[in-house]
């Protein structure tokens, strides 16, 4: 879904990115006031000695649950009284240092999805019966089996690599080029196990790096971008032929994207019901990837259906519900500090469809 929506977003004129950049570069009202105070009539002011400086006055901010007209200064930029009680909003997560840019990209992609991608995906679902869609999915998945086998070998799992090559041989012959997944049924009992270079990096302890929501990619991390690039280009580079043909490249991209959008439609709707859909989507992605890597290390049968269970997601309040700093002069009976009210439920606990 995110692949096609991001592609459609790129060709749209007047994107939201330029508006965001103009807003970030424009001086705030506070900065203009400071410039005017520092240089009245164009004459710079003489610095005041530290002992003569006036105390910093902290203006009251709007109450809890309301959005201020102008962003308040950060806690590091203002002085607080020693007896103050400070309630601050959630800081940017360390795994998502580009949260503002990522969230803007996510919201733009969702808008394109609502207007374009979702209707096309639903038409695709109605036009093609489920067996046909499953056959196309099996065919494209079967072409990734050599990459899966290579990575199992890199992870020193020759047994899993042999099973993967057995799946590839059975489905490519008896399964009519992979259209039918005969290997997962009895008597073979060889389920599909997803693997790739990003999994190998994680298996050997390479961290995910910063989280990103990229055009044509969707939710990912720096580690996964590098791994996905190797997954996508190694086999066509080694085999060549039809795997490099534009018809296959673009056709497989469209089919995979539409199939993912159809299969995960219920999950996407559930995420949008969360109080902060962007944060829930990010957490689901990161926990899914970590659970798969943990399974590679022996904590579960890797990617066997029902064997990898995600931990519960932490409900995240929307940005507008974050409170501004509150200063209280230690009353006799301190009032209760307002806490975020989580109105959402955890996102679906099992792995999403297609994993």
In short:
The chain has helices at 2-10, 16-25, 29-38, 99-127, 130-142, 145-154, 158-173, 197-203, 222-239, 246-263, 265-272, 277-299, and strands at residues 211-214, 218-221. It has 355 residues and is an all-alpha fold. The longest helix has 29 residues, at 99-127.
Description:
By secondary structure, this protein is an all-alpha fold. Helices cover 48% and strands 2% of the residues. The chain has 12 helices and 2 strands; from the N terminus they run ααααααααββαααα. A two-stranded antiparallel sheet has the order 1-2. Strand 1 and strand 2 (218-221) form a beta hairpin. Helix 1 (2-10) packs across helix 4 (99-127). It is globular and about 50 Å long. The model is unreliable at 13-25, 29-40, 56-68, 78-89, 321-330 and 340-355 (pLDDT under 50).
Secondary-structure blueprint of this entry?
Blueprint: H1 2-10, H2 16-25, H3 29-38, H4 99-127, H5 130-142, H6 145-154, H7 158-173, H8 197-203, E1 211-214, E2 218-221, H9 222-239, H10 246-263, H11 265-272, H12 277-299
Antiparallel strand pairs: 1-2
Helix pairs in contact: 1-4, 4-10, 5-10, 6-7, 8-9, 8-12
């Amino acid at each position: 879904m995110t692949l096609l929506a991001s592609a459609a977003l790129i060709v749209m004129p007047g994107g939201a990115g330029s508006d965001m950049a103009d807003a970030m570069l424009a001086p705030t009202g506070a900065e203009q006031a400071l410039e005017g105070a520092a240089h009245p009539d164009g004459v710079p002011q003489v610095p005041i000695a530290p002992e003569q400086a006036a105390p910093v006055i902290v203006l009251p901010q709007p109450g809890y649950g309301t959005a201020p007209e102008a962003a308040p200064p950060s806690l590091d930029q203002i002085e607080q009284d020693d007896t103050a009680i400070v309630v601050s909003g959630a800081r940017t997560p360390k795994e998502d240092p580009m949260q503002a840019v990522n969230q803007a990209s996510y919201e733009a992609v969702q808008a394109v999805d609502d207007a374009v991608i979702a209707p096309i995906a639903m038409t695709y679902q109605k036009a093609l019966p489920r067996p046909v869609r499953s056959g196309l999915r099996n065919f494209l998945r079967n072409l990734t089996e050599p990459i899966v086998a290579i990575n199992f070998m890199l992870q020193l799992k020759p047994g899993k690599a042999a099973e993967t090559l057995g799946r590839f041989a059975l489905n490519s012959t008896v399964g009519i080029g992979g259209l039918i997944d005969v290997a997962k049924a009895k008597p073979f009992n060889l389920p599909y196990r997803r693997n790739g270079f990003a999994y190998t990096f994680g298996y050997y302890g390479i961290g995910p790096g910063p989280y990103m929501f990229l055009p044509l990619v969707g939710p990912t991390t720096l580690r996964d971008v590098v791994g996905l690039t190797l997954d996508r280009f190694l086999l066509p580079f080694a085999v060549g032929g039809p795997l490099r043909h534009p018809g296959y490249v673009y056709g497989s991209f469209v089919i995979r994207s539409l199939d993912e959008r159809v299969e995960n439609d219920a999950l996407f709707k559930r995420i949008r019901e969360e109080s902060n859909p962007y944060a829930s989507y990010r957490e689901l992605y990161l926990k899914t990837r970590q659970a798969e890597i943990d399974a590679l290390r022996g904590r579960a049968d890797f990617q066997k259906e029902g064997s990898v269970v995600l931990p519960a997601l932490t409900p995240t309040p929307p940005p507008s519900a974050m409170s501004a700093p509150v200063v209280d002069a230690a009353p006799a009976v301190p009032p209760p500090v307002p806490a975020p009210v989580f109105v959402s439920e955890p996102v679906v606990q099992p792995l999403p469809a297609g994993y």
